[in-house]
Amino acid sequence: DMGNFYSAARDPIFFAHHGNIDCLWHVWRGPRPSNTDFTDPDWLDATFLFYDEEARLVRVRVRDCLDTAALRYTYQDVGLPWLNARPAKASSAVTPAPATTSTLPAKLDRTIRVTVTRPRVSRSRREKEEEEEVLVVEGVEIADHFNKFVKFDVLVNEPDGGEDGTPATATGYCAGSFAYTPHMVRPGEMGKGPVKTVARF
Q: Where does the Tyrosinase copper-binding domain start and stop, copy by copy (predicted)?
């Protein structure tokens, strides 16, 4: 159980999982100058207690772990062919399916289509590089979050019936997917009501 710190390192997938996340963070910081570590001192100065290789209890700050060279390791420089990859462009001949509701919130027991107004359109390439466009779905509410896995896909401008039989999530219409995994809860927490969260794509 990676949620229990005293024994998490015994989990055979623990090192591989955290090593991969660390590598993804390392790669993320490279492409854009704006991709930098957080500067909030509360985060930088947050501390954790660990036992070192001599079984001595040591206190480590987050800021001490941000430079992999200082930790005496680095990652192999490899190509990033996916960096500039883009989904295949949707056919210009298709018309997006019309909205099915203008009233939100709505229960996701069927496909929901809504009209979203973009704040800015026809941005230049430089503007797109400097400022990322993000679709935010607020007020995602999960009732039975103790027992059920929840997932939904978000598509933009998809026509009715999809296109050419290709799975929707494999097309240029797919903005992303939201997934929520049930979490272990303590006695007494079952009656606290639904979980509310936000999804960003």
A: 11-22
